[in-house]
Write a structure and sequence with these properties.
Helix content is 56%, strand content 6%. The two termini are 46 Å apart. The protein is built from 17 helices and five strands. Bound molecules: tryptophan. Tryptophan (TRP) is lined by residues 6-10, 42, 44, 47, 137, 140-141, 149, 151, 155, 158. This is Tryptophan--tRNA ligase.
Length: 361
């Protein structure tokens, strides 16, 4: 059996550089590695609706934004299937059957769900659909027989939940579903890129994101006002690297050749860090360097995005074709699930024969 990737994002906003280092960059590499038989990239609009039920317009608008970000980063419709979750009704049916294999208390213990319930003040009244989204995510993953799920660290509990469902399904109904593996970013800094203000997570509401589509002067402004080491007041003071957002971003983005181009007096990031720790290196210099690195990284993405923006009907066509192809794959899995669960009444000739025999007397 081949290797298959499935991953995706909720369309609740444009994608930012946290998405990029956390998963997008890797996806493009995996897509181009030739090691995978199929790559499915899902825009999870149905999942986005589980906590935006009253704001369908926001989800609708952001489907195309996310698709543009995907194409801009180099996801290639010739190599990857780009699909919209809600266009694959088979996923709902799978979710409905998997619901029988998961307990309420297990869902309540899911750390991501727990955190999200708190964040959204859902404590008193949790929408059932939202509560069950980990089960629907298991349907996403298993419908495409994904072997590999490249995601950020925050998705780990979802993968664990999926694996439990797979094991339970296979032990109750016989070997049917594929047990997926999570693929986390290799670099520590990429696991969870902090916001430009040093807060744990980039979020639109905090205004601490740098978007993939951001214009150069905006990028520069955000970098120059980034959180560093609050105790590093004068240039000659020793500075801290840990928790210093500028260095965390450099860990995530900079490569040795960036030093050759923009800061040749240092050979690599280790030297730069050592100087900062010793004292004598000012924040502005490090920020200017980070700005160069980010500008170089984001320029081709922004340019490609603008090209695709000129042909929006093409982008919808890509999503439509991808969704159609995805539906066929999901339908195949659904048939296997129905067979395993013995709800394939009309094409099970043995069943019909058995029942006939029973009543022949
Ligand atoms: N939960 C993911 C997010 O919040 C999106 C998602 C939906 C997903 N279905 C998936 C990711 C399946 C990986 C696999 O971004």
């Amino acid at each position: 059996m081949g290797k298959i990737i499935l991953t995706g994002d909720r369309p609740t906003g444009k994608l930012h550089i946290g998405h990029y280092v956390g998963s997008l960059r890797r996806r493009v590499e995996l897509q181009n590695s030739g090691e995978y038989d199929k790559v499915f990239i899902m825009i999870a609009d149905a999942q986005a609706l589980t906590d935006n039920a009253d704001n369908p317009e926001k989800v609708r608008q952001n489907v195309i934004e996310v698709a543009l970000d995907y194409l801009a980063c180099g996801l290639d419709p010739e190599k990857s299937t780009l699909l919209i979750q809600s266009q694959i009704p088979q996923l709902c049916e799978l979710t409905f059957y998997y619901m029988n294999l998961v307990t309420v208390s297990r869902l309540q213990r899911n750390p991501t769900v727990k955190a999200e319930i708190q964040m959204r003040n859902f404590e008193a009244s949790i929408p059932v659909g939202f509560f069950c989204y980990p089960i629907s995510q298991a349907a996403d993953i298993t419908a495409f027989k994904a072997t590999t799920v490249p995601v950020g660290e925050d998705q780990m509990p979802m993968l664990e939940q999926t694996k439990e469902i797979v094991h339970k399904f296979n032990s109750v109904y016989g070997d049917t579903l594929v047990d997926p593996k999570i693929l986390l970013p290799e670099e520590e800094a990429c696991l969870r890129l902090p916001g430009t203000d040093g807060k744990a997570k980039m979020s639109k509401s905090l205004g601490n994101c740098i978007y993939l589509s951001e214009e150069p002067d905006e990028i520069k402004k955000k970098v120059m006002s980034m959180y560093t080491d609050p105790d590093h007041i004068r240039v000659q003071d020793p500075g801290k690297i840990e928790g210093n957002t500028v260095f965390t971003y450099l860990d995530a983005f900079c490569r040795p050749e960036h030093f050759e181009r923009y800061l040749p007096e240092y050979a690599n990031l280790e030297e730069l860090k050592a100087h900062y720790r010793r004292g004598g290196l000012g924040d502005v210099k490090v920020k200017r360097f980070l700005n160069e690195v980010l500008q170089e990284t984001l320029e081709p993405i922004r340019t490609r995005r603008k090209e695709f923006q000129k042909d929006i009907p093409y982008v919808y066509e890509v999503l439509k074709k991808g969704s159609e192809a995805a539906r066929e794959v999901a339908e195949q899995t659904l048939q296997e699930v129905r067979n395993a669960m013995k709800i394939n009444y009309f094409d099970d000739l043995d069943l019909i024969r058995e029942q006939s025999e029973k009543y022949k007397g």
